[in-house]
Every structure is written in structure tokens, then in C-alpha cells.
Amino acid sequence: MAIFLDKLGIMSEVSLLRAIMDGIPPLKDKRLIIKDLIFEKVKVRLYQPKTSTTGQRRGVLYFHGGVGRFGSIRKSSRAPLSRYDHTETLLFPCRYRLAPEFPYPTQFHDCLTATIHFMKTAQDYGVDPARIIVCGDSSGGTLTAAVAQALVNRKDVPKLRAQILIYPFLQAADFNLPSYQQNAKIPVLIRERTLILGLKYLNKDISAVNILLKGSHISEERRQKYQKWLSADNIPHEFKMRGYTPPGPPAPYSEEIYKLAKPFLEPLFSPLLCEDNVIAQLPETFILTCEYDVLRDDGLLYKKRLEDHGIKVTLCHLEEGFHGTIFLAAYSKVVTFQSGIKGLEKITKFLRLM
């Protein structure tokens, strides 16, 4: 519908999607104190349990999805976890500024700024600085991974306790992984649409979609470097049994296409392509993947990279899940899928161990 109205010139796609997101009514929960705060000029919303506690709580910074252009941006800003833990967790959804009004990578810098501010002031909110977690879904998972990577060498803030990545987008080098093939036409995030959204986020020409899908932005040198991280051989066999054909020879490299797509390959946009010395310092990680999601293999490959460097990873794979199922489980009063409920329960269980 959004694409159709955009093509007719009635309403831009991003305007309609924002209107839909803003139409979600604000969370009202008698068990929570809800406040709007500012962390170094970045808007955040606090969900604080009303119940008293004898010790310090854990704190979770949450980054919503929406490919940097739409999402929970106004009074409806909230996070899935706010409905599931009302005792030990203070939740801070970050209301980062959106593109195109605020071009990429403003969204990353807002999330990083809010995280650093909170890490330095956590005790003011009764939060244990050693129990701070970053969390995000979809492109919010990208932001979460990028923020965690940006913090590993900082000495002025405590170490993150964990990161939670909910069906994250983690790389833009290979759009022919098994999950991209198997789920190419499965809503809500079809293969071509994934790349179009990324190009729009970076304010790039979307006419190059087809040639980018073929991998013409990757030189032979980069292909060899990325192979050890992105090879389908790193994905367990059970995930390749449904409609996967190993791709043929790579498409010819185009320097022009590479220049267009260069930001795609930077760790801010593709955290899976970060160097080993950073990966080795990341915190304990929870990754949620869905079987019917083009981004499934991004999560599986990141899991392997982290585990190869000794990082503890908890994987929650939803065999009946699809992209957005957690969002529906948390927000929808009409349609809720069991996979989303299961995912939220697994996330909450992980959080309670932190």
C-alpha cells in the first residue's frame, strides 16, 4: 500500500509508514512509571517498574527498527520488552532522529551518544553499571551491533553486559545467501525490498538494485576477505535443505557500483564485516533469527564469528517465525503469532540471567 500510494504521488512511502507507526497508541501500564528524558540532546523514554527493590536493577537501551527512516518516533515510542518484565529492568527506548531529514549515520551517532550518556549516569537511575544491555530489532539490531563494536576500546565507560540482536541486518556484501534465496518473495521483507530500503536510507540511487543483488560491488580481493565470514559453508546444513542452490560464478566487478555502495561495506552499516580484533572484545550476545526471513543467515553467520572468538552466544531460532513477528507479538491486539510470543519469552529469560 505504501509503495502504491508513493508511485501515485498521493503520499510518500515514508510519510505513510510513519503515520502508521505514530498511530500505535502509547503504552499504558499501571505497573510502570513512564517518562520522557533527554540524553545529551537525544530523546529517550524511560519505563521504570513501580515496585521497589533492595539492589540495583539492570538497564536496557532499545533501538527500534525501520531502516533509519521510520519507526517508534513520537508518543507511541516504546519497546517490545516493556510488556514482559516489570520488576528488575529499566528500559530506555532511544528515539533517534530519522532520515532523510537527518541523513545517515545520524541514527548511529544518536544511539551511541545516548548509550554513553546512560553508561556514565546509570547509578542516577538505580541501575548497576555492570548490568547495561543494548538491544534492537531489524535495522535496530544493526545499530545495536554497531554501538557494541564502537564501545569495545573505550576506557571512559563500563563494559556492556550483553547485546540482544532481534532478526538483525548485519551485512550488505552477499544477497545470495541461503536465506536470501529461500525467502526472496516472503513478506514482509522480500529480497529486493531489503536492498531498496537500504539504498533509500543512504540516499543512494535505487536503479542499481539488480546489479547490487548480483554482487558487482564486491572486488575479488574483498570477496576473498569476506569469504571466511560469509561463506554458506559456515551455515549449518539444516538451514540449506529448503530451496537453496549454491550460486554460480560472481558477477563482474564494477568500480562505479562499488563507489555507490561503499558505505554498505563499512561496519556501521555491515557489522558482520568488522575486523577480528573488535569482534573478539564484544559482550555476551543473544541472537534471534526467523526461518522465513531473508536476514536469518546474517544472524547465523554472526553467531559463528562471535563463537570463533570465544564470545558466548545464545541463539533463539524461531522455526515458524518471520521478519516482524516480535513486533506483532508485542503490539498487536488483533493478530499475534505464537512464534513472536515464544521469541519474547526467550528474550525475557535471557535478560533475567543478566
UniProtKB/TrEMBL annotation:
The active site is at 138, 293, 323. SUPFAM superfamilies: alpha/beta-Hydrolases. InterPro entries: AB_hydrolase_3, AB_hydrolase_fold, Arylacetamide_deacetylase, GDXG_lipolytic_enzyme. The keyword Hydrolase applies. It holds the Pfam family Abhydrolase_3. Keywords: Hydrolase. GO terms for cellular component: membrane. GO terms for molecular function: carboxylic ester hydrolase activity. Residues 60-203, 261-325 form the Alpha/beta hydrolase fold-3 domain. Belongs to the 'GDXG' lipolytic enzyme family. PANTHER family: AB HYDROLASE SUPERFAMILY PROTEIN C4A8.06C, ALPHA_BETA HYDROLASE FOLD-3 DOMAIN-CONTAINING PROTEIN. This is Alpha/beta hydrolase fold-3 domain-containing protein. It comes from Meleagris gallopavo (Wild turkey).
